[in-house]
Request: fold
Amino acid sequence: MNCLAITFSDIFKKSFLENWSTQQIDLGTVVMCLSVTAVIALYIFFLYRVVTRKTFYSKAFNISLVGVALITAAIIITIQSNIVISLGMVGALSIVRFRTAVKNPMDLMFLFWAIGVGIICGAGHALFAVVLSVVLSVVVWLLDWLPVVKAPMILVVNATDLNIEGKVMPIVKEYSRHAEVKARNMTAGSVTLTVELRVTDGGLVKRLQELEGVTAVSMVSHNGEVTL
Reply:
């Protein structure tokens, strides 16, 4: 039984550790892999700047996309070179927890894109990474240029007349096919009326401002984000 156990142990060491523990990867291959990854990552960097339409553009996040792609590629290369290191790396990375929340879905897509490019290039399939980047760019541009239904507007009316809703809504319905009161905030001497609508004419604000008792009228556009 002991001889049999030793035999299995020897077989395991020879077939798994000795044959697969080390795979020589020359420096030129590593440099070439990281160079191709850097080129594709820079393409992602510029495309992210063009596609995203944020008021506050995060250059730090955009730079991190390039860094994530390169780091991921380096990790994949290391995993290929030594299976023992790969097992230890999997254990080390499993305890990492990222606390930064990605609020924009487009940012999340670009982040996974950068990680995917790093994995594909690190595995030695740079051509697949190029094809992925080209196809994804075309899809993003096409979907971005597709016409969408006009987003509703938010009308905010501040007035001292507590019965201003009865005066405002008939005028609103002259300019909008769809109008719905979303909120009514009243205090002792004022009222704030919030209405969601789709405006067909730009003269609504001016007409509401002329009503007696109205102190302020604001029109806010939104498409998931509020823009004043």
User: Anything to note?
Assistant: Strands lie at 153-159, 176-186, 191-199, 214-222, 226-227.
